From TrEMBL, chain A:
GO molecular function: transmembrane transporter activity
Family membership noted in the UniProt record: Belongs to the binding-protein-dependent transport system permease family. LivHM subfamily.
Signal sequence, renumbered to the chain: none
Keywords: Amino-acid transport, Cell membrane, Membrane, Transmembrane, Transmembrane helix, Transport
Gene Ontology biological process terms from the UniProt entry: amino acid transport
Cell compartment(s), UniProt: Cell membrane
Transmembrane segments: 6-27, 60-79, 91-115, 135-159, 191-210, 222-249, 264-282
UniProt protein name: Amino acid/amide ABC transporter membrane protein 1, HAAT family
Topology of this chain in the membrane: Multi-pass membrane protein
One protein family per Pfam: BPD_transp_2
UniProtKB/TrEMBL annotation, chain B:
Organism: Paracoccus solventivorans
Protein name per Swiss-Prot or TrEMBL: Amino acid/amide ABC transporter membrane protein 2, HAAT family
Residues of the signal peptide: none
Topology in membrane: Multi-pass membrane protein
Residues spanning the membrane: 23-40, 47-73, 93-117, 124-142, 172-193, 224-242, 254-282, 302-324
Length: 290, 349
């Protein structure tokens, strides 16, 4: 039983990370109908930037958090301005290819600057895990889950009550009408990219502190895809919840089936989801049929 | 001066090339390509072999993504299936070259139906993600079945004689095999695209509901697009295996699928000539850029050779971005412009 519980908890801890990235995918998709293939790379880039700041200063938590916030906003803003904005009005496929190219660009530039080897994040101490009901828990994993919960609530409240969030939902349901109502859709795109980069940055710094920082962080972006498909590409909170599900499924597969199948468990899940319920668990049902 | 106005028979309208002298020009090109092994050193036509294999793969992908409009990020998966089928059949089971190549195409086409079936309900991005998932699963399964495929330690590939008589050991033989397959694939695709099947694909790309009303069976033609494309890509994978003679799943990562997509975007979606030009450019690009960087002095030169993979990634990304932004119709459009300018010279405008 404690083996099962350990697997579930490990799955939840990874799933929270997937959930955060999946929220980033969903926010951008909701507003602009574009899947940002560079989400994992953006997360890696911001984590690397914070790493450089921590390396050159005393590495205090406050400075690192500040570095994450500033660099996420800057990265989100710059990408929107110089990659996404010039492509407005082009077919969605072109914009998606643009984000794929951006992913390769970020990955290569990061490898050129920071090298190909994983580092330990400066100041990340190895704390003895504590045990509750036979489950080994690292304090930072609890922090990750708490941050995940807080961001879920914040994003939900933002979309539900904030005027910008309401405008985002309006744009998601009909961009033309919301434009006629006086919503500046281009400004919403910018907001969406900045918010999604911010969430990715927070996820990145947490991952870097729990595990390590290295080029393989970019793969988490791809592995968070199943979460956003399962939750529904246009459902932000759905994607976040589905992240936990995918995390637990991966962990259980790794524990009970075979360790090698852990990496593809999520993708097998989405192949079935796409066949049976392509709009996901919480997504809007507007996929055409043949 | 060439004009396109004087058509007197229906056969002229439906001919592969509109002018008689086009055949002559392609004849000259073929003669040069055929004589190449005797004109240049081995490493150059070994390089051209790589380009030819890339051309086959790009032409295959272009059918499903360019013509039929079904975005596929699963190219690496189909290439891997083709390559490993050939590798296993020739090395472990002693099959002949031609039969192993055909089996590679068929295996790849059969696997494509697995992706094709969800594609009937999915469009655009959802399909792209399905094919991506498929490719990751395939490569992972190949890596996992190490009793059959050698797993992470790789699989050496035997290159058997063609039909049991033609020796295939030399690089020259490999070059001619790739050339023959490439020419056959290009001719077959060109003909396929202008008959009913190709026009049906173009129709379902433009507007699938209208295509259905015109009597096109969407289920059949979407699956057919996947199968034909995967067959050709499987052939390319098979040639890859025979050419490198050693297979490892590391070479079938996501970057390979993106390279393939880059080829058809750079060339111009939907055109066979574009796919060929794009494949040539993208394959040559890393070495071309290394050479250019070397010209700027020893610092950039050593940077290019020291971190070749990163420089390659940066250049791919910038080229894709440049073409998407500046020339979405690709090299094919430029080719047409230049051709029109010179064929109407000195009256070109």
């Amino acid at each position: 039983m404690s083996y099962f519980l350990n697997l579930v908890f490990a799955g939840l801890a990874v799933g929270a990370l997937y959930g955060l990235l999946a929220m980033g995918y969903a926010i951008i998709f909701k507003v602009s109908r574009v899947v940002n293939f560079a989400q994992g790379e953006i997360m890696m880039l911001i984590a690397y930037m914070a790493y450089s700041v921590a390396l050159r200063t005393d590495g205090s938590a406050l400075l690192v958090v500040l570095a994450v916030l500033v660099s996420s906003v800057a990265v989100g803003f710059l990408i929107e301005r110089f990659v996404v904005r010039p492509m407005l009005g082009q077919p969605v496929f072109s914009l998606v290819m643009m984000t794929i190219a951006l992913a390769i660009l970020i990955r290569s530039v990061a490898a050129l600057i920071w090298g190909n080897y994983p580092y330990r994040f400066p100041g990340a101490e190895t704390v003895q895990p504590f045990v509750i009901a036979g489950v080994y828990i690292q304090p930072l994993q609890m922090v990750l889950l708490a941050v995940y919960g807080a961001i879920c609530v914040a994003v939900w409240a933002f979309l539900r009550f904030n005027i910008v969030g309401i405008a985002m939902r309006a744009t998601a349901s009909d961009a033309t009408v919301s434009m006629l109502m006086g919503v500046s859709v281009t400004r919403l795109y910018r907001t969406a990219w900045v918010v999604s980069a911010l969430i990715a940055g927070i996820a990145g710094i947490l991952f870097a502190n729990i595990n390590h920082i290295g080029p393989d962080m970019a793969h988490i972006g791809i592995r968070a895809f199943p979460a956003t498909i399962l939750g529904g590409l246009d459902s932000v909170i759905g994607s976040a919840v589905a992240g936990l599900i995918i995390g637990v499924v991966e962990s259980l597969t790794g524990g009970y089936v075979a360790a090698t199948y852990k990496e593809i468990a999520g993708f097998v899940v989405i192949l079935f989801v796409l066949m049976i319920r392509p709009y996901g668990l919480f997504g809007q049902r507007n996929i055409e049929r043949v | 001066m060439r004009t396109r106005t004087y058509k007197e028979t229906y056969s002229q309208l439906s001919s592969l090339f509109p002018y008689a002298d086009t055949w002559a020009w392609y004849g000259v090109l073929m003669a040069i390509v055929l004589a190449l092994p005797w004109l240049v050193p081995t490493y150059i036509f070994a390089y051209v072999t790589l380009v030819l294999i890339a051309v086959i793969g790009a032409v295959g992908l272009n059918i499903v993504t360019g013509t039929a409009g079904l975005i596929s990020l699963g190219q690496a998966g189909f290439l891997a299936i083709g390559a490993y089928t050939t590798g296993i059949l020739t090395t472990s089971y002693g099959w002949g070259l031609a039969s192993a190549m055909l089996a590679s195409g068929v295996a790849s086409a059969a696997a494509s139906l697995l992706v094709g079936i969800p594609s009937l309900r999915l469009k655009g991005l959802y399909l792209a993600i399905t094919t991506l998932a498929f490719s990751i699963i395939v490569v992972h399964l190949i890596n996992d079945a190490d009793s059959l495929t050698g797993g992470s330690s790789g699989l050496p590939v035997r290159r058997p004689d063609l039909f049991g008589v033609v020796p295939m050991r030399s690089q020259m033989a490999m070059y001619f095999l790739s050339l023959a397959v490439a020419v056959l694939v290009i001719l077959a695709t060109l003909n396929l695209l202008r008959c009913r099947v190709g026009r049906a694909w173009a129709a379902l790309h433009d507007y699938d509901i209208a295509a259905t009303l015109m009597g096109i069976n969407l289920v059949r033609y979407k699956l057919l697009a996947f199968a034909v494309s995967a067959f050709i890509v499987g052939l390319a994978g098979s040639l890859m295996a025979l050419n490198i003679r050693y297979l490892n799943t590391d070479s079938f990562g996501l970057i390979l699928s993106i390279e393939a997509i880059a080829m058809i975007i750079v060339g111009g979606l939907g055109s066979v000539r574009g796919a060929v030009l794009g494949a040539i450019l993208i394959t040559l690009l890393p070495d071309l850029s290394r050479w250019v960087l070397g010209q700027f002095g020893s610092f950039t030169g050593s940077l290019a050779s020291g971190s070749a993979a990163e420089i390659k990634g940066i250049i791919y990304a910038l080229v894709i971005m440049f073409f998407l932004r500046m020339e979405p119709e690709g090299l094919n459009h430029q080719w047409k412009r230049i051709k029109r300018f010179w064929s109407e010279w000195p009256y070109s405008h």
